[in-house]
C-alpha cells in the first residue's frame, strides 16, 4: 500500500504540573482521539510527540520548517537562527 500526500503530526508541550498529576502513558493516544472527536477524523494526527520545548528563533517564532523536516525523516536544515540549537537535537533523538 502506498501513501500519498501529507499527514498531520503534532508536537505537544505539556505543563509540568499536569505531568506531575497524571500518568504520561497513553497521553499521545488520548490527544489523538480527542482531536478526532473535536475536529474530525481527517484532522487526527498520525503521530503525537510530547516535547519539552519547540525550536524558536531569537524573536520567538516557531521554526515549523525544522519540525516538518524531522517529522518527514529528512535531515534537519540550517539551525543557526535558533535561540537554542540543542532543542533540535533533543527532538530528533526523541523521534528516532
Automatic annotation (TrEMBL):
It comes from the Bacteria. Residues 3-61 form the AMP-binding enzyme C-terminal domain. It holds the Pfam family AMP-binding_C. GO terms for cellular component: cytosol. GO terms for molecular function: acetate-CoA ligase activity. This is AMP-binding enzyme C-terminal domain-containing protein. It comes from Microbacterium aurum. The lineage of its organism: Bacteria, Bacillati, Actinomycetota, Actinomycetes, Micrococcales. One of its GO terms (biological process) is acetyl-CoA biosynthetic process.
Amino acid at each position: 500500500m502506498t501513501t500519498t500526500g501529507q499527514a498531520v503530526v503534532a508536537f505537544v508541550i505539556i505543563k509540568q504540573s499536569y505531568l506531575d498529576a497524571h500518568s504520561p502513558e497513553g497521553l499521545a493516544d488520548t490527544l489523538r482521539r480527542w482531536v478526532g472527536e473535536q475536529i474530525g477524523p481527517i484532522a487526527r494526527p498520525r503521530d503525537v510527540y510530547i516535547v519539552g520545548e519547540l525550536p524558536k528563533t531569537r524573536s520567538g517564532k516557531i521554526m515549523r520548517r525544522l519540525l516538518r523536516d524531522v517529522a518527514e525523516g529528512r535531515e534537519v536544515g540550517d539551525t543557526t537562527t535558533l535561540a537554542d540549537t540543542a532543542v533540535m537535537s533533543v527532538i530528533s533523538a526523541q523521534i528516532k
